[in-house]
Amino acid sequence: MTLPLWIIPVVIIIIYLFSSIKILREYERGVIFRLGRVLPEPKGPGIFLVFAPIDRMVRTSLRIEAMEVPAQDVITRDNVTVKVNAVVYFRVIDPTKAVIEVTNYLYATSQLSQTSLRSVLGEVELDALLSQREKLNVRLQSVLDQNTGPWGIKVTMVEVKQVDLPEQMIRAIARQAEAERERRAKIIHAEGEAAAAANLEKAAETMARQPGAIQLRYLQTLVEIGSEKNTTVVFPLPMDLLSSLGQVLKKLAGPEPGGSA
Questions:
Q1: With left for phi above 0 and alpha for psi between -120 and 50, is residue 46 left, alpha or beta?
Q2: Rounded to the nearest 10 degrees, how much is the dihedral formed by the CA atoms of 201, 202, 203, 204?
Q3: Does domain 65-169 have CATH number 3.30.479.30?
């Protein structure tokens, strides 16, 4: 039994149509070149036909890409050499431009990120690089987004991951931090001494107005000494006895030379 000759072209056409069916996911778009000219609108998502060899499709993803920027040698404004790496988050917002305007948008964005990282961080001092990380991230994001906009790329975020300092600079920063801590400790100690002196002055004025306060303080000191487990021997003397002894000594000394009789 022989098949009719018309069946062969029909089978070829069916196979061709099946091979022309393309399905793109929700996050994918297809840029179609028909006879070398790009169609105005990219295809997808869903199902559509691509008639090869007349049509050629370039598939692009609209998801956010996370690209790590390799460690770069950066010379800061105050002439300190550091190694800095970062991560760049970006996505394709115009698939047609991403295919037509640049050969490989991933490679181009990577190279632009490396050069921008060196140029932007080279304009700031080391202290700003270590303490103002958020401002530098926003500035890097703005610079990259401005340059990748014509390629149909939107840079959503840039994060400086790590800053590697030379050993000499690490030791210098440690000495600076230690000196700062010592300065604060001395200031706090001086403030404590000033406050203690002011309180002692007030206590002395109060005890001068109330002589009995000195006796109470004397007895409290004896109690504190007696509560400790030590071998200290204390002979308590009444304060009145000491004051009386002082008056007797003044009488025995007589009047001061040159004074009135």
A1: left
A2: 50
A3: yes
Q: Are 58 and 84 in contact (CB under 8 A)?
A: no
DSSP lists the bridge partners of residue 92 as: 153
With a pLDDT cut of 70, the percent of the chain lying above it is 84
From 110, 137, 111, select the one nearest 124 (Cα to Cα): 137
Q: How deeply is 224 buried, as exposed, middle or buried, from its count of CB atoms within 10 A (0-12, 13-18, 19+)?
A: exposed
Phi, psi torsion values for 103, nearest 5 degrees: -65, -50
Q: Enumerate the domain spans of the chain.
A: 9-59, 65-169
Structure confidence by residue, pLDDT tens digits, 115-163: 999 999 999 998 888 888 899 999 999 999 999 999 999 999 999 988 8
DSSP string spanning 66-111? EEEEEEEEEE-TTS-EEEEEEEEEEEES-HHHHHHT-S-HHHHHHH
Distances 25 to 38, 45, 94, 137, 225 between C-alpha atoms, Å: 21, 5, 17, 32, 86
Q: pTM, whole model, 2 decimals?
A: 0.66
* Token pair for 218: 């004397």
Single-letter amino acid code for the residue at 207: M
Question: Where is 159: in which H helix or E strand?
Answer: strand 153-164
Cβ-contact 71, 84 below 8 angstroms: yes
Element counts in the chain: helices (H) and strands (E)? 8, 8
Tell me which residue of 26, 106, 21, 22 sits closest to 69, measured CA to CA.
106
